[in-house]
Every structure is written in structure tokens, then in C-alpha cells.
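Bench log, entry 3. Co-assembly request; chain sequences pasted below exactly as received.
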Amino acid sequence: MSAAIAILIIGVGTYLERLSFIGIIGDREVPEWAVLPLRFVSPAVFAALVAPAVLLQDGSIELSPASNPQALATVIALLVAWRTRSVAATLVLGMATLWLLQAVL
Amino acid sequence: MRINQPFIDGSKAVSPLLIGVVPFGLVFGVVAADSVIGPALAWATSFIIFGGAAQLATIQLFDEGVVTVVVIATALVIGSRHVMYSAALVPYFQHFPRWSRFVLPYLLTDQAFAVSMVRFQDLDDPVEQRWFFTGAALTLWISWQLSTLIGVLVGAQLPEALSLEFAIPLVFIALLVLTVRTRPELVAALVGGAAAVIAAPAPLGLGLIVGALAGVAAGVVAHRVTQ
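Structure output for the full assembly:
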């Protein structure tokens, strides 16, 4: 399947998610069994996207700042995000940390 | 032309949130400029998908060479929060004209939902509600299209040595921290991240799905235990 078709499918699917209750299901509550799991989708998916991307190199966990500066930069970014709750500040200071580590190590 | 006050109010209400949206859009564009799927298609996700986190995950997973079905599944799982927004808006949208119940959901975002839910409490007229939502949502849509486009144009000029691909996990780190407000949410994040690392060798990029499902399950269990 080409990337363009996959993206169109995602686009239609995302629209149907937005439309779901407003246009199709109507005035009914979200079923009880779905309410609780939906609350944990964002933290679980975001962590699952981040952790392998910043911790793994060639399939194994690499924490040494010299060979994987992204791991240490991630720790700094987590602290910045927690203190500032700002996406922009996390980006700027996270990138700055990575560049600094790449320059000195 | 008569100036429509609720439309302007909606646009104004959402404008402080643009401080967060526009830099995100610029960064997405910069990353998209370098994607294996090509800058044009990567930018087109801005109006085809119109959801920053889902768009960013789509780009990341295509660049990692993950199998297409997993890319689609991940993007739709990230978008699943819109189902909750949709349900919460039914009491208001059911008084809107039929066509708008099918057109306006395309514009539904975290930010448009947030400002509308707050404002609808004091706004009784469905016509004014509809214009307010349209003003907020359309302002956001235009800002997103333009900021991602500018990002793509700028990103194509930037050198590779800047390691800008690290911007993808950085945005997800910030979104992660913003969505972790309770202990069960923290458990969901920790287990989701750990499971995704352990399951990373799984074929077809399924490790991500395993991580996400494990995280959601752990969150539910943690919630039940702490109740």
C-alpha cells in the first residue's frame, strides 16, 4: 500500500472518530467499558513512541551520553516539560541540550 | 458584510492557544520536509489528518519503515480521544443544522473542544454556539496549515547536522508530561514506555502497539487498585 493511500485512510478514520457521536451515534453516552481505557490512551501511546526512540540504538538499550546523547537530553526535556508545561520550552531546551552534548562529548 | 460577533469571539478565545500550536506546526513542518514520504505528502497530512500528534507519529513510523497497517492503527489510536470530545459535544451539536453536524466535526481539535465547552456553558443560542465553534476551530485550522507549510519551506533549507529529527520525541515528551496528571496515568506511561522498549524487536513495528496496549491495561488496573 502506498503512503498516500495509508494517509487518506488515516484521514477518513480520524474524521469518523470526530464525527462518531455527533453525526452517527447521536445522543448516547460513551459505553462504560470504554471510558476508563480511553483516559490512558494518550500517556500510554506517547510513552511508547518516545521510549524506544530515545533509549535504543541498534536494538539495545544505550544510556551512555557519549554514544547516545539523546537519552540524557530526554531526561532534561522531561524535567523542563514537567516544570514549564510548555511544548515550546521543552523543544528549545531539549535541542539545546542535545547540541551541547554533541559539542562537548 | 455583517460582522459575526460569536465567530470573532471564538477566534479570539482560541488565539492564546496558538502560542502552543504555531511552534508545534513549525516543528512538524521542519521534520516533514525531511520525511521519506516526501515534503508535499507529509505537509498534506495537515489537512487530510489535521491532528499534530497523529501526523507526527505517522511521519516517524514511515521513516522507521514500520509496516503500513501499524502506522494506520497507531494514528487512529492517537485520534481516539476525539471520540470522547464528540460525545461531549452532542448536547450542543444536536441543535445545529444537519449539514453542520457533518462538516464541523472535521475541524474538531483539542483546543476547539476546550474553548467551546467552557463558552457553551454561558451561551444558550445554538446559532451563536455554532458560530463560536466555527470561529475557534477555523482559526486553528488556518494557523495549522500555514505554520506547517512555513515549517516545510524553512526545514528544506536547514542542515542535517542539527539533528532536528530529535524534535519528534521532544514534542511527544512534552505531550506525555501534559497528559500525565494522576498516578494511574503515570503508571500507564511507565508501563507503556517499558513494554514498547522490551517489545521493540517484534516484527512489523508491532512493539509500539504492544507498548500502548500494555500501558492502557496497566492504567486501568492502577485506577482500579487505587479506588
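Chain B touches chain A through 92 residues (CB under 8 Å). Chain B has two domains: 5-177, 180-227.
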